[in-house]
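Section 5.1 Outputs to date
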Amino acid sequence: MKKKDIRILLVDDEPDILEILSYNLTAEGYTVYTAKNGAEGVSKAKKKQPHLIILDVMMPEMDGIEACEVIRGTKGLENTIITFLTARGEDYSQVAGFDAGADDYITKPVKPKVLVSKIKALLRRLKEDDSSNEDIVKVGNIVINREEYKIINNGEELILPRKEFELLSLLTSKPSKVFKREVILDRVWGNEVVVGGRTIDVHIRKLREKIGEDHFKTIKGVGYKFVL
């Protein structure tokens, strides 16, 4: 997908923020729309069907958390990538955002170049979704062969235990997306055995040792995500 075909919606009640971010993302070649509050953001999201929405949390009329919940419940927008952009960095705000259905969380102030880099990382999910059914998937320096249950990391072949492989395959299916613990348990372990959250932590620790610690980020109280 070409950049000009990728639609991004910015929702923030600060005109300066909208102007700066819109300018930088447009300069990158993306098609950018803006809204000054949550209610307007929901309306534009329904009309423009953006691939990515950047939401401020504290806004008049409808805050970002509520807007995110409405968007997630709107047909056609269930899989839209949503990230929060806010000056509030407390854990409870992040948890509330993820519970509402957000994929990521960016704290203000953020330099435009850094934001653009984060946006590019989030948009890689669009490419991953296109190849989600392929037996061989490449994510950064990692090649995942789902048919042979084999991993190649920086040219080195790795044979992972089944659950480690399935956990890695799940997290890398959508880089930067936060997978909640209950989702991981359901997708990786299903109804096979009764396991607790500690089981996930142990498997993540083993993957960090084998794949690289920087690739796996813990979102406290929520779950994990894979970082390129």
